[in-house]
Structures are given as structure tokens and as C-alpha cells.
């Protein structure tokens, strides 16, 4: 399979480079195990060079006007959209998601580039009424400096643009380490950034076969001012600790354990539709995918049956094939985790309504599955499933639903369905989550603040809040007037 956007070198200081060690690591298609390409396996010294390049570039980039930065971002946005089909195919090849979802991700990912290019021009400060007549007080916003971004494989494009676009728009420079499984989409983005006219060193994309060494440089190097990470909670905690020695700013978008509550006053058809969209997106492998369905007694059976019926109808296969709705899991470890969680649940009394087996296609494929009689002691109630298992728990009343929903250290996305306005306000305010979908299963958009409470993270991405993560506020006191 040849794709015109495949690049097999890292991008540092405007150059396409190998690792100093000349080591490479293979990128394989999770749908069939075939090797697609190889990319450099960077070590610490390679990563340090990228940070130094970003630091040199920052000295000039920070002096550009917002309008200049907006124009370059706009060109990058246009190029990403012009290459939507090739980018989408590349993404499906390396991460397995169905082509239609990959195309959706290109548009979604590009929307952050468009949005933050526009926001670059609106990073206003304040003129603050003075407490003394001989002085004036101002607050201005300035770029924080070199930003590192460490991103996961489940959104190979959007998790990069969501961090890099606000950073670059703010006047920062960036070093990105994409996930080891999905660096090709990232390198394609670097190619398009080069074509868009990014000056050398403003955006650097470095690849590695594992996150630890490069991640250490990106979170400890004194020239890095800010670390933005999306991935698992344990790695996020390690990065926060590593960043502490040099007091870096951090943005963390970590794991979730999303509840999806269906109250007895909900429109059940709409709830099932929202459930399908939220649960099975990217084969269950997103941090905002439903992890726990909580359904009120009187509508429990109807909801479970309808969800099972729809789940049974999902088409599983290679994401490049027409009509496929569910791709493979990212790798064997991902599939084994699903099997382990499923076995733990059935051992403790869960019942399988549909699915429950490795898929006949073999490899990393697993049958979309619906389980009922789920209880909080089962591992899949406590851990992120990251796979196509719908696990349904029964509740009696609103208080119990909220108690169950909040009974987790995580707090990223929650969803609920209800037709009662007073309940909608009560429940929205009671849920300890950064994002709440109300009668809606798909919540991501560049115009809204995305991020988690509790151990799901720090900071917000997207919206007008998102650029503040890359800006310092400086107070100017002008005296002697
Ligand atoms: P996921 O379950 O999404 O793979 P991870 O947290 O393992 O979540 O990975 C997300 C990103 O973090 C990837 O780019 C990965 O290479 C990187 N990573 C993994 N371990 C570390 C580490 N110890 N330090 C820095 N980055 C890491």
C-alpha cells in the first residue's frame, strides 16, 4: 500500500532526519499485521536536539504578529483539508479506525488549526483601574516558550492539532512525540506544515519506539516550559512528577470512566442512538467512550435489548473496506485486556446479551458485546475498557445514579438522558465531570472546552480557554507618572 504522505524520517529544525543511532522501528497495520513503514527510533540526544531547535526558533517566532501566525495556520488548515483523503487512509492504515471515522477526525483535527489561528488575534490583556494616580496597571499575555506534546494512538491527528495549534498560535514552538504505533499521520502533518511555511524549528515531530527516554527529555529539559500530554493516567502522573523539578506548566488529558445514565423519563430511542455513537466510536477506544451504562429499573430491559439489537448489526472488518463500522483493536494487548475484563465480569455474574467472543476475523478483532447485570465490583466498572464492551448496571433512583456515576477517581466525560428539565439541571451540576453530554452522545468540538476533573487531568483544550494554556500573564506596573 503506498500513500503519498508516508514519511519515514523525523522532522527536526526543518530537516527530515534519522536517529543518531540509525535505529528504526516498524509501523504495522493492526487490521492485518502488515508492515506499512519504518520510522526513526529517537533516543535522548536526538530529543535534546529537537528541544534546542525549538528553543532557538522561539526567539524569532515569539516576535511574529498574531496575524502572521494566523495566516500560516490558515494555510496549514487548508492543506490538511486538501489532503483529507490521503491523511484519512494513512490514519486507518496505522490505527485501524474505519475510514469514515478517519475522515471525520481529519476535519475535527483541522478545525483546531482553523480555530486557534483565529484565536491568535484575540489574546487580549487588561488595563486595570489604578489604585494610585502615579501608576498604571496592565496585564499582557505572552507565549510560555517551548512546549512539548506527547500524544496517544487513538486520535493520531486531532490530539496533535489540539495541542500544537494553540501553542503555535500563542507564539510558542513545539516538539511533538506521537504514539509509537501511529507516527505516520504526525509526520504527514509535519510535511504539510512545512508546505504551509512554518519556519524551521517551530514544529518538530520526533518518533521513538517507546515513550520513556524521549518522554523524560520532554518533561525534564530546562528549555521546555510546558508539557501537554494525552494518554493514560499512570504515565500522566509520571510526567507531572518529572515536570515538577523545573516547575513546568502541564496540561494533562488522562483516562476516563464515562457513565451514561438513562433515566426512566428519557427518550429511549434517542438514548440508544447516543449510546451507539458514544460507545462504539473508534471501536470503544476513546477516553470519552461510555464505560458504564447506568439504567433505571423500569427501562432497563427495553434499553438493554435495543442496544444489543443495534450492536449485533455492527459491521466489523478492515477499516479501509466499504461499510465497516468497527475496526480491530490497536494491538494484541488491547484485545487481551477486553477478554480479561469480560471474563472477570462473567465470572462475577454478568450475562452476555450479544457478542462475547474474539471475532471470526481473528487477529486483533473482537465481537461488539453487550453485558447486563454489571455490578460496581467488576473490573470493567472501575477500569477504562477501551474496547467494544457495553456494560449495563441497574439503578433505582436519581440519588443512586449520581452516587454510582461519581464513584470513581476519574472525571472526564459523563452522559445522561432525561426529559425532565429540573432533573437535567440537578444532575448536570451534581456530576463530577469536566464534560457532560445531556441527551447527546457525541460532545467533541473545537469551540467547547474539553478536559477532565479529578484524576482525569488538568487544563482544557479547544474553545477560547484552550489558548490560555500556552500563555503567561505578565503584570506591568508603570510608576512615576
Ligand atoms: P495509551 O494507552 O494511549 O497508549 P500511554 O499513556 O501508554 O497511553 O501512551 C500515550 C503516550 O505516552 C504515547 O505517546 C507513549 O509513547 C507515551 N509514553 C508512554 N510511556 C511514557 C513515559 N514513561 N514517559 C513519557 N511518555 C510516555
UniProtKB/TrEMBL annotation:
Chain coiled-coil ranges: none
Domain called Aldehyde dehydrogenase: residue spans: 16-475
Active site per database record: 253
Pfam families per UniProt: Aldedh
Record GO terms (molecular function): succinate-semialdehyde dehydrogenase (NAD+) activity
Annotated keywords: Oxidoreductase
Domain of life: Bacteria
GO biological process: gamma-aminobutyric acid catabolic process
Gene3D superfamilies, sorted: Aldehyde Dehydrogenase, Chain A, domain 1 (3.40.605.10), Aldehyde Dehydrogenase, Chain A, domain 2 (3.40.309.10)
Homology family: Belongs to the aldehyde dehydrogenase family.
This protein's name: Glutarate-semialdehyde dehydrogenase DavD
Organism encoding this protein: Saccharospirillum salsuginis
Amino acid at each position: 500500500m503506498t500513500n503519498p504522505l508516508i514519511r519515514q524520517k523525523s522532522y527536526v529544525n526543518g530537516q527530515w532526519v534519522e536517529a543518531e543511532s540509525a535505529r528504526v522501528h516498524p509501523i504495522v497495520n493492526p487490521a492485518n499485521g502488515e508492515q506499512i513503514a519504518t520510522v526513526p527510533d529517537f533516543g535522548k540526544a536526538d530529543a535534546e536536539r529537537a528541544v534546542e531547535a525549538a528553543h532557538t526558533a522561539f526567539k524569532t517566532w515569539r516576535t511574529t504578529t498574531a496575524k502572521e501566525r494566523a495566516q500560516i495556520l490558515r494555510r496549514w488548515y487548508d492543506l490538511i483539508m486538501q489532503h483529507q483523503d490521503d491523511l484519512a487512509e494513512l490514519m486507518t492504515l496505522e490505527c485501524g479506525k474505519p475510514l469514515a471515522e478517519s475522515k471525520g477526525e481529519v476535519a475535527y483535527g483541522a478545525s483546531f488549526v482553523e480555530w486557534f489561528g483565529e484565536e491568535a488575534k484575540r489574546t487580549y490583556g487588561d488595563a486595570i483601574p489604578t489604585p494610585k494616580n502615579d501608576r498604571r496597571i496592565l496585564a499582557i499575555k505572552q507565549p510560555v516558550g517551548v512546549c512539548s506534546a506527547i500524544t496517544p494512538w487513538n486520535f493520531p491527528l486531532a490530539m496533535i492539532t489540539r495541542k500544537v495549534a494553540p501553542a503555535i498560535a500563542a507564539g510558542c514552538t513545539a516538539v511533538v512525540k506521537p504514539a509509537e504505533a501511529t507516527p505516520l499521520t504526525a509526520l504527514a502533518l509535519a510535511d504539510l506544515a512545512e508546505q504551509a511555511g512554518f519556519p524551521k524549528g517551530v514544529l518538530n515531530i520526533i518518533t521513538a519506539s517507546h515513550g520513556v527516554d524521549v518522554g523524560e527529555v520532554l518533561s525534564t529539559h530546562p528549555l521546555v516550559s510546558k508539557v501537554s500530554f494525552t494518554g493514560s493516567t499512570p504515565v500522566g502522573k509520571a510526567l507531572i512528577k518529572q515536570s515538577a523539578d523545573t516547575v513546568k506548566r502541564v496540561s494533562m488529558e488522562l483516562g476516563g470512566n464515562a457513565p451514561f445514565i438513562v433515566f426512566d423519563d428519557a427518550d429511549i430511542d434517542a438514548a440508544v442512538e447516543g449510546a451507539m455513537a458514544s460507545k462504539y466510536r473508534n471501536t470503544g477506544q476513546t477516553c470519552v467512550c461510555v464505560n458504564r451504562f447506568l439504567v433505571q429499573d423500569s427501562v432497563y430491559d427495553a434499553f438493554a435489548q435495543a442496544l444489543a439489537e443495534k450492536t449485533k448489526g455492527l459491521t466489523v472488518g478492515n477499516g479501509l473496506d466499504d461499510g465497516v463500522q468497527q475496526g480491530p483493536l490497536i494491538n494484541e494487548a488491547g484485545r487481551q485486556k477486553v477478554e480479561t475484563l469480560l471474563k472477570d465480569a462473567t465470572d462475577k455474574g454478568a450475562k452476555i446479551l450479544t457478542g462475547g467472543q474474539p471475532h471470526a476475523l481473528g487477529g486483533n478483532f473482537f465481537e461488539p458485546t453487550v453485558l447486563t447485570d454489571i455490578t460496581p465490583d467488576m473490573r470493567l466498572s472501575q477500569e477504562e475498557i477501551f474496547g467494544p464492551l457495553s456494560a449495563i448496571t441497574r439503578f433505582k433512583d436519581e440519588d443512586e445514579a449520581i452516587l454510582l456515576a461519581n464513584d470513581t477517581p476519574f472525571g472526564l466525560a459523563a452522559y445522561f438522558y432525561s426529559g425532565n428539565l429540573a432533573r437535567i439541571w440537578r444532575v448536570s451540576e451534581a456530576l463530577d465531570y469536566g464534560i457532560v453530554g445531556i441527551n447527546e452522545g457525541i460532545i467533541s468540538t473545537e469551540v467547547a472546552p474539553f478536559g477532565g476533573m479529578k484524576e482525569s487531568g488538568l487544563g482544557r483544550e479547544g474553545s477560547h480557554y484552550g489558548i490560555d494554556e500556552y500563555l503567561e500573564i505578565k503584570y506591568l506596573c508603570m510608576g512615576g507618572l
